Amino acid sequence: MIRILLADDQTLVRAGFRSILDGEDGIDVVGEAVDGADAVRLAYQVRPDVVLMDIRMPGLDGIAATREIAARTDVRVIILTTFDLDDYVYDALRAGASGFLVKDTEPAELIHAVRVIARGDALIAPAITRRLIAEFAARARHPDPGPRLAALTEREREVMALVAAGLSNDEIAARLVLSPATAKTHVSRIMTKTQVRDRAQLVILAYESGLTVPGWLSRS
User: If one looks up domain 2-131 in CATH, what number appears?
Assistant: First the structure.
């Protein structure tokens, strides 16, 4: 059973998401938070698998709440935003979110997102993945390779760059002429070596370290 916590200051929004998710086998909405502070409290109290977190709420906002939840628990956070290029999405991913969705996402996509995040993967709305990555990577601070990339092999750096470009394990396997299982193993080892919790954080690290720059894949 996937346990879900809804965090949004609008009652109707929470009710809408609950009506979609509660009707699905294997998914249980275990709580509703009205703001970021409430979300943090309930995340500790009911220990959901996934939080659907509104990015803009009064008091403690979704970014600050995500940062606190990600730092102290293994609960995963999906950020909900009104616009697909919300100025705060990149900051939310850096704070520890495992992905994000726009609020007008189709019900089937919402359910899929919850299942993907619950099993430990990361998700960024498919229709805007590459555009979002390029947009927000361009706003990153000056690249700093740091110590976390030092342990990676050349092949692992290549795989990490492809993850940062939005490619799935199957797409990475096809591009590098590997088996999907081998590509998945590479990604898992990279996350272990760089000490990141999921693919979303791996994307952020790739751009902030300077390993990848926006648009490189389309030019290669």
Answer: 3.40.50.2300
Q: What is the pLDDT of residues 12-59, one digit of tens each?
A: 999 999 999 988 999 999 999 999 999 999 999 999 999 999 988 989
Hey, where are the domains in the chain? 2-131, 140-213
What kind of fold does domain 140-213 have according to CATH? Arc Repressor Mutant, subunit A (1.10.10)
Q: What share of the chain is helix, strand, coil (3-state, %, to 5)?
A: 50, 15, 35
Return d(Cα 55, Cα 195) in angstroms, integer.
25
**CB-CB neighbours of 170 under 10 Å:** 12
Please answer whether residues 35 and 17 qualify as being in contact, where contact means their C-beta atoms are separated by less than 8 angstroms: no
Helix axes 36-46, 62-72, angle to 10 degrees: 20
Q: Are 110 and 157 in contact (CB under 8 A)?
A: no
For residue 184, give every residue at least 6 positions away whose Cβ sits within 8 Å of its Cβ, in sequence order, or none. 169
pTM of the prediction?
0.73
Show the tokens assigned to 195: 């000490």
pLDDT, one tens digit per residue, over 73-82 is 989 999 888 7
The 27-33 sheet, strands edge to edge: 27-33, 2-7, 50-54, 76-81, 99-102, 123-124
